[in-house]
Design brief:
single chain, alpha/beta, Rossmann fold, 6-stranded mixed sheet, 4-stranded antiparallel sheet, 10 helices, globular, binds adenosine-5'-triphosphate, ATP hydrolysis activity, P-loop_NTPase, ATP binding, ABC_Ni/Peptide_Import
């Protein structure tokens, strides 16, 4: 479904180097590694959203299409439709002046060609599916951090994407809220057979959510395997260090 081959992201020097991996339809893959290891830049390169001044080389194929050489018009057609992303900070991704329900509905209308009425109805259903039945008319500032992140999830899943990328979606939330948002992500992708690339530095989250895991260090993938394999029998010294530093108990 998506395959990344020799992805390098560079400013004046390389920040991500020769990264290769594949994600199959419906597969849930974790991307772990310490701060600055290149996880977010890898995700942004997949979305075609790298900050100015950074350039990507290599190959990213999504359903056979080359993304790195795709025109912006093609990429924006894919984003929010086939390819969706949830960021760490929902407030910066939401429009503060637009009611939550309308933001979900707009995302449906932009890609789905539904009538205004049908899109509003679907937006309400999506808000119910993330357990926010009363949020349609709320503005983002009237919602809590966890509620905003659930609105973002409803927007990201609105058009049944084939790949959802989550970049530390629960890091800014309270622990109890984290678990709820994680469950909703898991349910949302499972129901749709959406593949998931989940970026986190929390191994417990990986153990709960992901079937396979990629470990990044200094811009490269240093280990990959099934979550169980990597967490019970890590091959790379860095992965062993990550495991030792976590309080994860792997049976
Ligand atoms: N716009 C930019 N220009 C130059 N360097 C950048 C830019 N964005 C990120 N970097 C650098 O690239 C490296 C990788 O950053 P990235 O954000 O991908 O790390 P990360 O693994 O996602 O970290 P975190 O867990 O803190 O989000 C870091 O050293 C960072 O300082």
């Amino acid at each position: 479904m998506i395959s990344v081959e020799g992805l390098t992201v560079a400013a004046s020097s390389p920040l991500v180097q020769g990264v290769s991996f594949e994600i199959c339809g419906g597969e849930r893959v974790g991307l772990i590694g310490e701060s600055g290891s290149g996880k977010s830049l890898t995700a942004l390169a997949l979305m075609g959203l790298l900050p100015e001044g950074l350039s990507a080389t290599g190959e990213i194929r999504f359903h056979g299409k080359q993304l790195l050489s795709a025109r912006e018009r093609e990429l924006s057609r894919l984003r929010g439709n086939e390819l969706a992303m949830v960021f760490q900070e929902p407030m910066s991704a939401l429009n503060p002046l637009m009611r939550a329900g309308r933001q979900v509905a707009e995302s449906i209308r932009l890609h789905g060609g539904k009538s205004r009425r049908a899109a509003s109805r679907r937006a309400q259903e999506l808000l119910e599916s993330v357990q926010l039945p009363d949020a349609y008319r709320a503005y983002p500032h009237q919602l809590s951090g966890g509620q905003r992140q659930r609105v973002m999830l409803a927007i990201a899943l609105a058009n049944d994407p084939s790949l959802l990328i989550c970049d530390e979606p629960t890091t800014a939330l309270d622990v109890t809220v984290q678990a709820q948002v994680l469950d909703l992500i898991l349910t949302g992708v499972t129901e749709r057979s959406t593949a998931l690339l989940f970026i986190t530095h929390d191994l417990a989250v990986v153990a709960r959510v992901c079937e396979r895991v990629l470990v990044m260090l200094d811009g490269r993938i240093v280990e990959e395997g099934s979550t169980r394999e990597v967490l019970t029998n890590p091959a790379h010294a860095y992965t062993r260090k990550l495991l030792a530093a976590s309080d994860l108990e792997v049976a």
